[in-house]
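Recall the central idea of this unit: under ordinary conditions, the amino acid sequence of a chain determines the structure it adopts. In this exercise we apply that idea directly, starting from the sequence alone.
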Amino acid sequence: LIILLADGSNAILLSGAPGSYARYPKWMHTFENQLSLDFRTKQSNALLLYTDDGGIQGNFFSLTITNKKLQLDFRITIIK
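Accordingly, the structure predicted from this sequence is:
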């Protein structure tokens, strides 16, 4: 799996070994965010991206490949 960072200047190459991952500093969510990533893999099933709110409200985003199909799961809680 190759991950190109948002600024396009660097790439991370993961070996594909079980449990391999890259971790980044906390991303400060705002009302409107944009994230752009390029992935290249030969895997049929993989976790590509996961982020959550640290268990505060149970919010999360998960981007996976499941049976060769891209899948986005998320939960967004809106407090009024």
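The beta strands are 2-4, 11-13, 38-40, 46-52, 60-66, 69-75.
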